[in-house]
Amino acid sequence: MNTILTNLTIKVNEKIYVKNPETSPLGKKIIEHGIILIDEIGFDNFTFKKLGEKIGSNESSIYRYFENKHKLLVYLSSWYWSWMEYKLLFATTNITDPFEKLNKAITIVTEKVTDDTDTEHINEAILNKIIIAEFTKTFQTKEIDQENKEGFFLIYKRVINQIVAIVNEVNPSYPFAKSLVSTIVEGSLHQHFLKEHLKTITDCNESITTTQFYLNLIKNVLR
């Protein structure tokens, strides 16, 4: 699958950026070190000035790629979910049994992410940590409805609905497929957060994974 992913270009809604960062060495540097810096200091403390200092570039040069740091976070989130969409597609394409396909899909969106070395300037393991900690900040804003209309969250919704379609294969009579899947995808991020920071209010730990919890959930809900 990694070979196939290497030959694919992950596309992000062009309205999110001023200039596509994938088209230049500086743009890729902004993405690579933006991920590292957000992980190090958190999104609230992150600024383009700090990023410029880290990469040895003027703050103004970053604004040539992104209007503001919110758009950068939306870009990173869109890239992540597009990467996840490709993983889902190629992991489930040749599986005919619906429940096996669903188990595979749930595993992909809930498991601990490791870095894909085929994407040199993006460390998916670190990006996953940002998604766990910061993803809700991309849409819990006053601009959510307008940004949704402009398609900022289209890729994320496609991931959700791709799994919803599999749930409908497993149990066509289950009436809450969309709510179930969106709860699993967002809930898994929350469980990973709790496992790292608030361990006393989750059963997930080093021996019980987030994936095991959600596989058990769908088995009981959809049986």
From TrEMBL:
Q: Specify the HTH tetR-type domain's residue ranges.
A: 24-84
**Which SUPFAM superfamilies does the UniProt entry name for this protein?**
Homeodomain-like (SSF46689)
rRNA-binding in keyword set: no
Under InterPro entries, the record lists:
Homeodomain-like_sf, HTH_TetR
Residue ranges for the DNA-binding region feature of this UniProt entry: 47-66
The record, for Gene3D superfamilies, names: Tetracycline Repressor, domain 2
Entry keyword annotation includes Membrane? no
Q: Which UniProt keywords apply?
A: DNA-binding
Q: Which domain of life is it from?
A: Bacteria
Q: What is this protein called?
A: TetR/AcrR family transcriptional regulator
